[in-house]
Amino acid sequence: MILKNPYLILRRVSQISIMTLYILANIYGLTILQGNLSSSLIFGTIPLSDPLAVLQMIFAGALISTNIIVGASIITMFYFFIGGRVFCSWICPINLITDLSSFIRRKLRFDTIQKKQPASRNIRYWVLALSLILSTILGVSAFEFISPISMVHRGLVFGLGFGWAAILIIFLFDLFVLKNGWCGHICPLGGFYSLVGKYSFLKVTHNHIKCTECMKCKEVCHENQVLSMIGKESIPVLSGECTNCARCIEVCEDEALNFSIINRFAKK
Amino acid sequence: MNNDRREFLLKSARTVGLVCLSGLIWSAYVDELTASKLILRPPGALKEKDFLSTCIKCGLCVEACPFDTLKLAKPGDNKPLGTPFFNPRDIPCYMCIDIPCVPVCPTNALDEKLVSTNGKLDINSAQMGVAIVDSQSCIAFWGIQCDACYRACPILGQAITIEYEKNERTGKHSFMKPVVHTDVCTGCGLCERACVTQKASIFVLPREVALGKAGDYYVKGWDEKDQRRVKNAKEIKTTTKISKDKAIDSLNDMGDLLDD
């Protein structure tokens, strides 16, 4: 292979070009992709909306327009098929920050010092539930008020203000406090997409015959609990928490990991 | 076994505690932000409470605005994050006839119905806010000739009119005082932008902040239409401690007087 990490480069291209399209839309009125990750328009016609934001709006008791239901359905269906957390690794701007954090962490060998993670990865589902409960009580989409995802993304398109502080907090938190802290433990949007993409068709598959148990995949994976089958069984990564970022595929020198399309309709 | 159970209980308790704590901080923060009332919203915006629950913070209205009037609240603006607003002294609303910011809204947080008359978009029916004159600092009230706000008003002669008054002191010059008609004013802020004083003496406030309400009790007796309003008036009965006593007792009660 010519490129050592083609998926990583593709992911960065995807993240940055989507961002650029949004920014161009705001500055020059380019109509390919307008709005931001909360809600956008493709070519000024096809609506796209953040399904978690819409869910919070429903809980907050807002009247939901047809446009936004269509937009949220398109996005949900898309991620339902290709894996919910594809959003996290291929689109979300926070991923750039947290990837930088974990890159530095690996280089500085912080992980070898702090082996056991003190926090549960299920916190995100608690935060998700909390965001819906608070939306109901407060009558506003509660997570959207504090979400660093929309804050940063909106900030890059429309002006950042104090938003750089959110970037810094997440960066430092991931670097010093908790490995993969934000994306892997707290973010309720990641939790939501984990649930959406649980039964997706595109999955990373492991071939344990080829595997030499070097554990490079586990080292690089942001959600390494999903790789529990490494070296044991030849099964796909079934957990919805896998982000389909394909880092494991790239670092595996034995080609024991690859993408595959799962036939969900096959009779068992 | 026993240790496992203890650990499980401890962990659960810790999670529940953490969730409660973060929930409290979170809701306090949201409460604090949503309490700020002095925000001017784009035309057609729903009532603030409904607006906050409906707006998805996508910024499509901001992109549609050809004058860069609308901004999305950034962290540090002390406004609900990501919601659109404008600051008329910087850039007012230029009241486009086709109101590009409204139809583009995906959630109807900006409602076309609120800026339409007879099914047609009509920016003059927008109620973004209302202009208020500070008569103490307005130089026209001092007798210095200025009609900047009057001239800047896009609904010239209706939203702001000039009231002439003779100067009793000199007997010569007249005052030309601007008067805002709150039923016509859209709150676009062109007057605030045009005001010549150091800090604008005419400025736009949200309508619910700036306007009072007489209620249905007070009716213009000389206006037949207005008289119909009295039917809506509901009886308000106030009972105080004193009104429970007989009138004569109340007159004979010297308690309060003797105390002093």
Automatic annotation (TrEMBL), chain B:
CDD domains: DMSOR_beta_like (cd16373). Keywords: 4Fe-4S, Electron transport, Iron, Iron-sulfur, Metal-binding, Repeat, Transport. Gene3D superfamilies: 3.30.70.20. Transmembrane segments: none annotated. The keyword 4Fe-4S applies. InterPro entries: 4Fe4S_Fe-S-bd (IPR017896), 4Fe4S_Fe_S_CS (IPR017900), MauM_NapG (IPR004494), RnfB_subfamily (IPR050294). One of its GO terms (molecular function) is 4 iron, 4 sulfur cluster binding. Residues 45-75, 82-115, 129-165, 176-207 form the 4Fe-4S ferredoxin-type domain. This is MauM/NapG family ferredoxin-type protein. It comes from Arcobacter nitrofigilis (strain ATCC 33309 / DSM 7299 / CCUG 15893 / LMG 7604 / NCTC 12251 / CI) (Campylobacter nitrofigilis).
